[in-house]
Design a protein that fits this description.
This protein is an alpha+beta fold and 189 residues long. The chain has two domains: 42 residues, no CATH class; 108 residues, 3-Layer(aba) Sandwich (Rossmann fold). The chain contains seven helices and eleven strands.
Length: 189
């Protein structure tokens, strides 16, 4: 941790002490019969404990970054692993007119049942990007004039700040691929 060493998980080998003591004081036999060895024994116990609060603190500490940008600006970014980010995407109309908010709400309705989404239209899009970076939102979806012409949006990645035009119809698959905990677990198999 930035402030020193903290135990996140404790793993303790209790051998057969706990079960032997329980058997001794309860008067009950606590043993396992192993048919292959044809013998009974008191099992060893491995006691693990993990603190959710310390694990959360570890993730937060390793995710937080203050970046120096070109031109001397600073940006605060919470690089939460995408599957752990509470909000997966922010939907941002470039301006509050010309049909952009309505199109942004259509996109919100497309995504909101599968992903935690946030709609925001206050301030400049750059300020909105910075706010989403600071709270760990992996993707910003910007609705602009071109969106109204060809049903594409600008998809901005929090970590790289790279932007690409993608079809609105492709957004659910992209977010599922990048933000799904199921996909992370599949990669571990």
């Amino acid at each position: 941790m930035p402030f020193g060493f903290k135990e996140v998980e404790g793993i303790h080998s209790r051998t057969d002490f706990d079960l032997s003591q329980h058997a001794k004081f309860s008067g009950k036999k606590i043993q396992y019969f192993d048919a292959e060895l044809n013998e009974s024994y008191t099992p060893y116990v491995i006691e693990t404990s993990i603190g959710v609060d310390r694990m959360f603190l570890s993730v937060m500490c390793s995710s937080y970054e203050e970046q120096q940008l070109e031109g001397g600006d600073t940006r605060v970014v919470l690089h939460l692993p995408k599957p752990l980010a509470p909000i997966k995407c922010a939907i941002l109309p470039l301006v509050r007119k010309d049909g952009m908010p309505e199109k942004a709400h259509e996109i919100m309705n497309l995504l909101k049942f599968d992903f935690a989404c946030h709609y925001e239209d206050k301030d400049t899009v750059g300020k909105r990007y910075r706010r989403q970076d600071a709270i760990g939102t992996p993707y910003c979806i910007t609705v602009d004039g071109q969106t109204l012409e060809d049903n594409t949006v600008t998809l901005r990645d929090r970590d790289t700040m790279q932007q690409e035009r993608v079809a609105i119809a492709d957004l659910p698959a992209i977010l599922a691929r990048e933000c799904s905990l199921n996909n992370v677990l599949r990669k571990l198999m």
